[in-house]
Amino acid sequence: MSNPANSISPLDGRYHNKTELLRPYFSELALIKYRIQVEIEYLISLSKEKKIPELKPFSEKEQKRLRNIYLNFSADDASNVKSIEKTTNHDVKAVEYFLQNKIKKSIHPWIHFCLTSEDVNNLSYSLMWMDALKGPYLAQLVSLNRSIKKLAKRYKKVSILALTHGQPATPTTFGKEFAVFFKRLDRQIVQLKSHKFLGKFGGATGTWSAHEATYPKVNWIDFTKKFIKSMSLEPNLITTQIEPHDSIIESYHNILRINSILSDLCQDMWLYISRSIVKQKKLAGEIGSSTMPHKINPIQFENAEGNFGLSNAILEFLSRKLAISKMQRDLTDSTTIRNQGVALAHSYIALISIASGLNRIDIDLKRTKKELNDHWEVLTEPMQTAIRKSGKKSGYEDMMDLSKGKKIDESMIKDVIKKLKISDEDKEILLKLSPSSYTGLADKLTDLL
Asked: Which domain holds residue 442?
């Protein structure tokens, strides 16, 4: 490729090494290759239709030769197609003419037979997105979620002060907080794996009019069902000229949710580091600030959050735009859907950044213990519930008067507990509690993963 320093987009410039695995799915070469795949597979399927006697079935050898056109598609081939497009000013027609140069003349009339360009495009874009998701993107996401699960297990007993509304709250464990993110992501991964993508193949206005007029004895509905399923897609038989994009939009929303969940993780990690309860490993030669030598900035989480934001902005726009088409169709969907790979690439870069960030963190046990010991007021929660248990309804109000807006330490809490009019058993339980031990079932919840 050209020098990355000359790229307009950071995806092909600054991040070109990180997006390399996505190029076989979203580059211009990839789009042309997918279109050729659809055209070739359709041609082979047509030849197998017995009620089209003018096109004889291809032998196994001929099928292999035809498939090799897209299986061995090269950069030179892509340049050839783009050269043809300079004359046609139509990208799909350029593919048809390219194939004419690769296939014997007697077959030329059957290339792109009865099709509109959207028949080829909708399958191609869905296949590109689906293959990229279930290939490098899912591999990176699953790997990241495994790392999150390992962190949940590693830190399941490490108590930390929780914050609600940014204020000290009932303690939790660092592992349990990771467990929350693992479960959220795991649910989205299941949906991502099981999602079905739709495809249409019904001609210029979704009526198979040219097909029916030319070969009325062919059951074009059954033919289309079989063909689309052979491409690993589900047939959408009732459409306009375009497949209305609803199924691919649903998949965009899946990635939107994944991006948002992980943005939440990034912000939490940023705040843990800001509170100094999470520390980052030093990397030799790395500079945090050009003027402040002491800094180790949480750049991986910041990078990820920014890339997730860009990804979501594009996916949100595509989700709104692609659902709307003027009458049978207009060109805006073709113009915009080309950017689906840009959206996924930003998300993919963010996954890599988070994995890198998580790989260099550790909990600062001294800081977590100090933070917890600075906030004994969190034990007013179990104290007020014990008072209520004893039958006194003002337990909450009593503890509020004791603690709200005041600095509370261990000795004050224990003095109050000793004076409470509750059972000796409950008093003993409260006296044994500390902010570090008041984590409920947090470690057991982590064991549910």
From this structure: 375-446
The CATH number of whichever domain residue 28 belongs to comes to 1.10.275.10
Quick one: 232 and 361 in the same domain? Answer: yes
Catalytic residues: 165, 289
User: What is the C-alpha separation between 137 and 248, in angstroms, rounded?
Assistant: 16
Cα separation, 63 vs 42, in Å, equals 11
Whether residues 294 and 384 fall in one domain: no
Do 105 and 185 belong together in one domain?
A: no
CA dist., res. 188 & res. 315, Å (int): 16
Tokens matching residue 153: 């297990």
Residue pair 61/251 in contact (Cβ under 8 Å)? The answer is no
**Prediction pTM value:** 0.91
Residues 416 and 315 in one domain: no
DSSP run (H or E) holding 182: helix 174-194
Amino acid identity, position 408: I
Examine the fold and report which residue of 335, 350, 367 is the final residue of a domain before the chain moves on: 367
Q: Give 240-258 as a DSSP string.
A: SSS---HHHHHHHHHHHHH
Please provide the DSSP assignment of 13-52 as one string: TTTTTTSGGGHHHHSHHHHHHHHHHHHHHHHHHHHT-TT-
Do residue 363 and residue 235 come from a single domain?
yes
pLDDT in tens for each of the 449 residues of the chain? Answer: 567 777 778 888 788 888 899 999 999 999 999 999 999 999 999 999 999 999 999 999 999 999 999 999 999 999 999 999 999 999 899 999 999 999 999 999 999 999 999 999 999 999 999 999 999 999 999 999 999 999 999 999 999 999 999 999 999 999 999 999 999 999 999 999 999 999 999 998 989 999 999 999 999 999 999 999 999 999 989 888 888 889 999 999 999 999 999 999 999 999 999 999 999 877 666 666 556 666 678 889 999 999 999 999 999 999 999 888 888 777 778 888 889 999 999 999 999 999 999 999 999 999 999 999 999 999 999 988 998 888 888 778 877 877 777 788 998 989 889 888 889 999 999 999 999 999 999 999 999 99
Domain end point (choices 367, 384, 411)? 367
Q: Give the count of alpha carbons within 13 A of 324, CB side only.
A: 5
Report how many domains make up the chain. Answer: 3
Are β-strands 278-280 and 361-363 bridged in parallel, bridged antiparallel, or unpaired?
antiparallel
List the one residue out of 163, 362, 392, 208 whose CA is nearest residue 280.
362
Domain match, 261 and 406 both: no
